[in-house]
């Protein structure tokens, strides 16, 4: 147990460092439009988080993604959120080596990208991903998906659509927390729950959500729900100082994130 | 109602009628069988009766009569039945016909008379009147014959016969009157054989030759009959015509410069319809374009002319339209660059011609005009010879023909010389072997020879349809080939086959050809000209008849041939060449065609015709004959009279059947010429000697074709040596070129005429029209229904239908096929006409564009019907414009490919066989059936190419790609999004350039986000696009964006540094293809389109 705790802590530190490093090395391009109130808060890549699940032997990835692809009404805010959700689902499906699911997910991803006006940069990757799926090259596919995520983020950041960027991040991490909680709950061991201690992530996410100014989704119900529910999630995560959570708390996190997803899907 | 129509009879009445007809037939058969000898006249009378009796019944009288003749029946019962069931007039008619049948030859036989009287008695008819008739026939008495009967006729309602004519005021009368003093039922007329009988009605006031006719009497009309009813007068001839045309329909045109109206009749019902001019009916002016009924006592009057009645129209029917009544005066007019003759003076008249008897006098023209007669200025009244003298006005030369038409003579040709024509077929076989002859103005030349001897080749060479391998043709010494385009315009060529449009009327065939050849003259003048030509060719009465195709020929052979000649006369040809104009025609048709050709030669034209087997009369009617033997050898050229003496030397050498051949010579039978030319060689035993010719055993000829050629050439040489060299005829002048400038208006008229003609042809072909418009919707239903894929337990959704790609491809193939099948026979069917029109210097580009345009009208309709139906079934939305454009392009590809193929092939079978060769590559290389990457790698010429280069030349590849990418990326949802996306990028740029603040940027972006949401709500992606196509195209777009080179099924295309969307780029490629196919076809038509 001790060993596990040490390993987890090391991994978490590494993860945070990786995240910070990415900001410092400026992986995301800087714009020549300096005076913006927006603070870019990068979050750790999904595949790193899901790698931990593997390490903890919590991953039954094939069960983790629903057969029905997550869909929302066609509105910009909802679509950006859905894009985040689907990216997370995509990475899980890749880990599950489930061709059919990933195929469905990335068709939907392309559809949403097109609606968001991101297709030009996405289609190249989509084509690449198709070849990787056909050749069962799962490692490369995972990287490609992550690249895709970065590409989208870059594209949104470059076009200074920070609010969309935040919504997408929110979607990704809501789904991330939801799925990690689901994994933890399925094979519940208190020692393995500290993977949920994503305080920094939630903080950044909430900070970014506070900076959202676009009226068409800032004032919407789903946006309000997101903030409210994420605060609840933060309270649960922040509550335990040792980073270990009860099964009840884990279930709470699943319910909270499900509620956020449902708010968008309505 | 005076007459009962068969169609109105009840079943029991019809049965009764049939039985009565049966009885009448039995009566006649019995009477005829009693005679020893049955004459032709009896048969003729019986035949007429039977035709009339069985009219409207679905029974063959022939079968019926056969049955009766073979059967036995009770004659007395027949007579009794008829007595009970026939009305009085029918009984009288039967007795009259029996008398007329019996009077045949010389005398009546007593037994026959007794038999007739017996029938009379049993029919309860008085015999006195009938005996009067017998006496009239037997003793040739001159007293008028009247047959009394008991009751005056009041009705023929129950009559068995349908050929009675009723005169009266009643609306049901055949010959109707308006005058209230005329009785409802005034007169009944019937005709048997050559005899007419009339019976006045009860209240009739009718006069026969000035004497009132009494009711209750049936009168035999004498030869000099004149019947007065009210103010109407009928002579015997008119009465016969009324009887003959009682069931006919016709239209009598009355057309001159200042009036245009038609009198139509249908079963003796007459109507008048005025198109222009002042025409009066009983003194009241008639309104334009309205039908008025005319009665026989009505008076019709054309303003300024004498009034006339219907009787005049009927009597003069054969003359009306032909109008050969000699006028008293003629006027030469000038209007809109066009000279014409009228019978009345107008403000356009420039010169006056007075006619006295057969003498014509030309008066000096009005001030300001100069007129020359045979080159001399007309300064005082001078005599004028029609068909001969040349009138020159303003450098235009004219002649007046026998139909009083001013015929322009583009150049005056004195002599046409064929000099040593030698022609070889493409296989090297000789077709014409040194043919030389000269024709003078006004001569009718017959080219006579067996089938296959080269007559048609020779006339084609003369008409410049083919250019002989060697030799030349001289027109007054000028080589035709040096200015072939100009001269051949003045050559009329009537080939063996019809050059007619089957779905156009006689008039339309002429009108459209006239408009094409003479677009500079107005339609009104052209109509005058057509009327004149119709008169010349005796086709006035057929003016509005549809020509008909090979299966349904509405015109007789002679009429078709005359129409072919008429088509050539439109442009006033100086030389007319006809290939076998009378072959297969009836005697009367032959006479008519020959009369027309003779009349044309009398007008100073050179007329050359070929003829296979002329009668002696026809042979002698030629001014000169050219005899030909096999392999294009010239046997003789000279007068038909001298021809028979030319072969005397050979005649002396004949052995077997010499006397028979000599006999033919004595009777001047043209067969003599064939007999002697092809006379076989016999051995000493009188047996035929055979030889192999082309692996066939044939009787060897005594005198070979070479023998005849040499003989003729020797004679020619003799004549050349014996005769003084001809000095150049001083009268022969160089042909003057009169050419009408084709201004833009003329070109427009020509183009429009081509289109109208094509459209008219298409519209008139009803069956084809029906198939054309049913085919596309039916295919749409079948294809869409099959491809409407619904996932299990789900409702149908266009978005989820995985067959939309197949639908697009199949639809493209459908339209290529429809276009192809609509057009592939177009040029082939008109091949001979096109060749002829090409020789007339008509613009082939116009012809082709008009074809394409008229076909596209139908394609556009097909495309619309197809798309509307298939999109309804498949739920396709938001891509209507691009679908219609692309299906239309597919159709145009099919059309242009079809027209191109049609111009290259020469027979229908080849056309059918070539269709798969065109279509299958379109299917295989279209990109939907087989992936290009999976094709045989040997097809790839450049190793780096991912797929065979040949696919780039396949239109379906471009069509399929263009439409698929458009369905994915150019549907209404995508279009709207794209529009906003473009605005967003601009906004982004402005923000980056500090043109707008961050707040403004955010607000504007927000507005765009809202707009996008609205678009997604108004045009939901899942209703307006298809997931499968979106995915495929997105993938290919991804590849394009990665590799930056053109990829099949990507929605982007680059050309150098220029990037565009595939549906636009591909449409351009397809337009280039269509233009390419068009130009190849045009080049073929223009430069390499021959027999």
Structure report:
Chain A is mainly α. Helices cover 72% and strands 0% of the residues of chain A. Chain A is built from twelve helices and no strands. The longest helix of chain A is centred in the middle third of the chain and has 25 residues, at 162-186. By secondary structure, chain B is of the alpha+beta class. Chain B is 44% helix and 18% strand. Chain B is built from 35 helices and 41 strands. A six-stranded mixed β-sheet of chain B has the order 1-8-5-4-2-3, sandwiched between helices. In chain B, strands 33-34-35-30-36-37 form a six-stranded mixed β-sheet, with helices on both faces. Chain B has a five-stranded antiparallel β-sheet with strand order 19-18-20-21-24, with no helix packed on it. In chain B, strand 11 (249-256) and strand 12 form a beta hairpin. Chain B starts with 10 loop residues before the first helix and ends with a helix. Chain A binds chain B through residues 31-33, 35-37, 73-77, 107, 110-111, 114-115, 117, 119-120, 122-128, 130, 159-161, 163, 213-217, and chain B through 974, 977, 980-981, 984, 988, 991-992, 994, 998, 1001-1003, 1005-1006, 1009-1010, 1012-1013, 1016-1017, 1020-1021, 1027, 1030-1031, 1034-1039, 1041-1042.
How would the blueprint of this fold be written?
The complex is a heterodimer of chains A (266) and B (1091).
Chain A: H1 2-24, H2 46-55, H3 61-64, H4 76-95, H5 99-116, H6 119-134, H7 138-158, H8 162-186, H9 199-210, H10 215-218, H11 221-239, H12 247-265
Helix pairs in contact in A: 4-5, 4-7, 4-8, 5-6, 6-7, 7-8, 8-9, 8-12, 9-11, 11-12
Chain B: H1 11-34, H2 40-53, H3 61-70, H4 75-85, H5 88-102, H6 110-122, H7 128-139, E1 146-148, E2 165-168, E3 175-176, E4 187-192, E5 195-200, E6 207-208, E7 211-212, E8 217-220, E9 226-229, E10 232-235, H8 236-244, E11 249-256, E12 259-266, E13 269-276, E14 279-281, E15 284-285, E16 291-294, E17 300-302, H9 310-315, E18 329-335, E19 338-342, E20 349-356, E21 359-362, E22 371-373, E23 376-377, E24 382-384, E25 391-393, E26 396-400, E27 406-408, E28 415-424, E29 430-440, E30 444-449, H10 455-462, E31 470-475, E32 478-479, H11 484-488, E33 491-494, H12 506-517, H13 523-536, H14 557-569, E34 575-578, H15 587-602, E35 606-611, H16 616-621, E36 624-629, E37 633-638, H17 640-643, H18 648-651, H19 658-666, H20 671-677, E38 690-693, E39 696-699, H21 705-722, H22 744-764, H23 766-787, H24 804-823, H25 826-829, H26 831-839, H27 844-874, H28 880-904, H29 908-924, H30 955-969, H31 972-992, H32 998-1018, H33 1021-1024, H34 1027-1043, E40 1052-1055, E41 1058-1061, H35 1062-1087
Parallel strand pairs in B: 2-3, 30-35, 30-36, 33-34, 34-35
Antiparallel strand pairs in B: 1-8, 2-4, 4-5, 5-8, 6-7, 6-9, 9-10, 11-12, 12-13, 13-16, 14-15, 14-17, 18-19, 18-20, 20-21, 21-24, 22-23, 22-25, 25-26, 26-27, 28-29, 28-31, 31-32, 36-37, 38-39, 40-41
Helix pairs in contact in B: 1-2, 1-3, 1-4, 2-5, 5-6, 12-13, 12-22, 14-15, 19-20, 22-27, 23-24, 23-27, 24-27, 24-28, 24-29, 24-30, 27-28, 27-35, 28-30, 28-35, 30-34, 30-35, 31-32
């Amino acid at each position: 147990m001790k060993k596990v705790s040490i390993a987890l802590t090391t991994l978490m530190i590494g993860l945070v460092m990786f995240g910070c490093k990415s900001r410092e090395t400026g992986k995301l391009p800087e714009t020549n439009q300096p005076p913006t109130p927006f603070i870019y808060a990068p979050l750790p890549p999904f595949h790193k988080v899901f790698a931990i699940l593997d390490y903890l032997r919590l991953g039954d990835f094939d069960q983790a993604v629903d057969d029905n692809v997550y869909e929302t009404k066609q509105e910009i805010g909802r679509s950006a959120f859905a894009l985040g959700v689907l990216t997370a689902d995509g990475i899980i499906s890749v880990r599950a080596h489930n061709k059919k699911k990933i195929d469905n997910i990335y068709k939907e991803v392309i559809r949403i990208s097109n609606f968001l006006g991101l297709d030009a940069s996405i289609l190249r990757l989509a084509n690449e991903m198709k070849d990787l799926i056909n050749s069962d090259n799962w490692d490369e596919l995972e990287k490609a998906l992550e690249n895709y995520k970065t590409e989208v983020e870059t594209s949104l950041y470059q076009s200074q659509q920070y609010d969309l960027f935040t919504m997408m991040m929110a979607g990704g991490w809501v789904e991330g927390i939801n799925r990690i909680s689901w994994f933890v709950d399925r094979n519940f061991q208190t020692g393995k729950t500290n993977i949920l201690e994503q305080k920094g992530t939630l903080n950044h996410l909430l900070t970014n959500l506070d900076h959202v100014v676009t009226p068409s989704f800032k004032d919407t119900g789903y946006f309000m729900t997101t903030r409210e529910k994420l605060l609840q999630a933060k309270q649960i995560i922040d509550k335990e100082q040792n980073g270990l959570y009860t099964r009840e708390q884990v279930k709470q996190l699943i319910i909270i994130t499900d509620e956020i997803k449902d708010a968008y899907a309505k | 109602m005076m007459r009962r129509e068969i169609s109105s009879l009840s079943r029991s009445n019809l049965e009764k009628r049939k039985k009565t007809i049966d009885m009448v037939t039995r009566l006649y058969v019995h009477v005829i069988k009693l005679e020893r000898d049955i004459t032709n006249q009896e048969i003729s009378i019986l035949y007429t009766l039977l035709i009339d009796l069985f009219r409207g019944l679905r029974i063959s009288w022939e079968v019926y009569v056969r049955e009766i003749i073979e059967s036995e029946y009770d004659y007395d019962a027949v007579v009794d039945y008829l007595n009970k069931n026939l009305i009085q007039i029918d009984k009288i008619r039967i007795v009259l016909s029996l008398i007329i049948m019996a009077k045949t030859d010389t005398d009546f036989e007593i037994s026959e008379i007794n038999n007739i009287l017996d029938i009379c008695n049993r029919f309860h008819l008085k015999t006195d009147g009938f005996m009067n008739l017998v006496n009239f026939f037997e003793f040739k008495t001159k007293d008028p014959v009247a047959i009394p009967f008991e009751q005056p006729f009041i009705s023929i309602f129950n009559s068995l016969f349908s050929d009675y004519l009723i005169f009266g005021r009643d609306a049901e009368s055949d010959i109707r009157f308006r005058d209230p003093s005329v009785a409802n039922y005034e007169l009944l007329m019937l005709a048997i054989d050559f005899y007419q009988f009339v019976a006045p009605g009860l209240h009739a006031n009718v006069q026969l030759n000035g004497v009132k006719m009494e009711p209750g009497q049936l009168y035999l009309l004498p030869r000099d009959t004149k019947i007065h009813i009210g103010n109407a007068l009928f002579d015997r001839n008119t009465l016969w015509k009324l009887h003959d045309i009682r069931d006919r329909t016709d239209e009598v045109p009355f057309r001159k410069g200042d009036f245009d109206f038609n009198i139509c009749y249908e079963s003796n019902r007459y109507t008048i319809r005025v198109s222009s001019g002042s025409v009066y009916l009983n003194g009241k002016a008639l309104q334009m374009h309205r039908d008025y009924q005319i009665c026989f006592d009505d008076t019709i009057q054309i303003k300024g002319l004498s009034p006339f009645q219907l009787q005049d129209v009927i009597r003069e029917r054969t003359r009306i339209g032909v109008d050969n009544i000699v006028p008293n005066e003629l006027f030469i007019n000038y209007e809109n660059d066009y000279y014409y003759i009228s019978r009345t003076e107008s403000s356009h008249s420039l010169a006056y011609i007075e006619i006295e008897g057969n003498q014509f006098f030309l008066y000096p023209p009005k001030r300001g005009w100069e007129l020359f007669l045979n080159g001399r200025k007309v300064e005082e009244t001078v005599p004028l010879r029609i068909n001969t003298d040349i009138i020159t006005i303003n450098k235009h030369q004219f002649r007046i023909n026998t139909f009083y038409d001013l015929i322009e003579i583009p150049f005056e040709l004195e002599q046409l010389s064929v000099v040593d024509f030698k022609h070889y077929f493409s296989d090297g076989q000789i077709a014409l072997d040194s043919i030389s002859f000269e024709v003078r103005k006004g001569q009718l030349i017959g080219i006579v020879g067996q089938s296959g001897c080269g007559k048609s080749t020779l006339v084609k060479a003369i008409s410049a349809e083919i250019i002989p391998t060697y030799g030349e043709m001289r027109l007054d010494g000028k080589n035709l080939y040096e200015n072939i385009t100009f001269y051949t315009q003045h050559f009329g060529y009537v080939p063996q086959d019809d050059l007619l449009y089957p779905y156009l009327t006689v008039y339309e065939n002429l009108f459209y050809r006239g408009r094409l050849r003479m677009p500079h003259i107005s339609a009104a003048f052209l109509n005058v000209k057509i009327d004149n030509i119709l008169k010349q060719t005796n086709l006035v009465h057929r003016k509005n008849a549809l020509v008909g195709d090979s299966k349904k020929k509405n015109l007789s052979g002679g009429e078709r041939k005359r129409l072919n000649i008429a088509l050539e006369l439109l442009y006033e040809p100086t030389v007319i060449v006809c290939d076998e104009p009378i072959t297969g025609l009836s005697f009367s048709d032959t006479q008519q065609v020959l009369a027309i050709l003779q009349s044309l030669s009398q007008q100073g034209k050179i007329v050359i015709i070929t003829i296979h087997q002329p009668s002696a009369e026809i042979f002698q009617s030629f001014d000169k004959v050219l005899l030909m033997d096999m392999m294009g050898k010239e046997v003789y050229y000279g007068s038909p009279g001298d021809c028979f003496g030319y072969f005397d030397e050979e005649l002396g050498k004949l052995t077997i059947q010499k006397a028979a051949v000599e006999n033919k010579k004595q009777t001047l039978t043209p067969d003599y010429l064939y007999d002697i030319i092809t006379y076989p060689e016999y051995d000493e035993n009188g047996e035929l000697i055979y030889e192999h010719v082309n692996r066939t055993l044939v009787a060897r000829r005594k005198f070979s074709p070479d023998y005849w050629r040499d003989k003729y050439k020797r004679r020619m040489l003799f004549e050349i040596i014996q005769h003084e060299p001809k000095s150049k005829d001083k009268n022969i002048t160089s042909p003057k070129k009169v050419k009408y400038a084709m201004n833009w208006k003329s070109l427009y008229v020509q183009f429009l005429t081509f289109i109208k003609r094509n459209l008219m042809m298409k519209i008139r072909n009803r069956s084809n029209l029906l198939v054309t418009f049913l085919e596309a919707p039916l295919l749409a239903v079948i294809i869409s229904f099959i491809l409407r894929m619904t996932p299990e337990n789900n409702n149908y959704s266009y978005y989820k239908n995985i067959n939309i790609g197949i639908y697009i491809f199949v639809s493209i193939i459908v339209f290529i096929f429809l276009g192809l099948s609509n057009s592939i026979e177009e040029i082939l069917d008109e091949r001979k006409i096109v060749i002829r029109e090409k020789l007339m210097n008509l613009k082939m580009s116009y012809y082709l564009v008009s074809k394409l345009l008229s076909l596209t009208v139908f394609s556009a309709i097909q495309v619309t019907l197809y798309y509307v139906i298939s999109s309804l079934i498949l739920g396709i939305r938001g891509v209507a414009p691009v679908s219609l454009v692309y299906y239309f392009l597919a159709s145009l590809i099919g059309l242009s490919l079809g027209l191109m193929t049609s111009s290259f092939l020469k027979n229908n079978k080849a056309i059918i066989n070539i269709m798969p060769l065109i279509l299958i590559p379109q299917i295989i290389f279209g990109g939907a059936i087989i992936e290009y990457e999976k094709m045989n790698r040997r097809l790839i010429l450049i190793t780096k190419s991912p797929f065979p280069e040949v696919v780039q030349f396949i239109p379906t590849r471009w069509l399929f790609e263009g439409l698929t990418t458009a369905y994915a990326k150019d549907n209404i949802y995508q279009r709207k999004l794209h529009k906003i996306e473009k605005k967003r990028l601009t906004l982004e740029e402005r923000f980056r350039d500090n043109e707008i603040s961050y707040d403004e940027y955010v607000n504007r972006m927000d507005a765009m986000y809202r707009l996008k949401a609205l678009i997604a709500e108004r045009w939901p992606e899942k209703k307006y696009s298809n997931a499968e196509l979106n995915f495929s195209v997105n993938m290919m777009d991804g590849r394009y964006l990665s590799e930056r080179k053109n990829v099949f099924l990507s929605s982007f295309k680059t050309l150098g540094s220029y990037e565009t969307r595939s549906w636009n780029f591909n449409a351009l490629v397809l337009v280039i293809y269509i233009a390419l196919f068009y130009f190849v076809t045009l080049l073929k038509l223009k430069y390499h389109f021959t027999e």
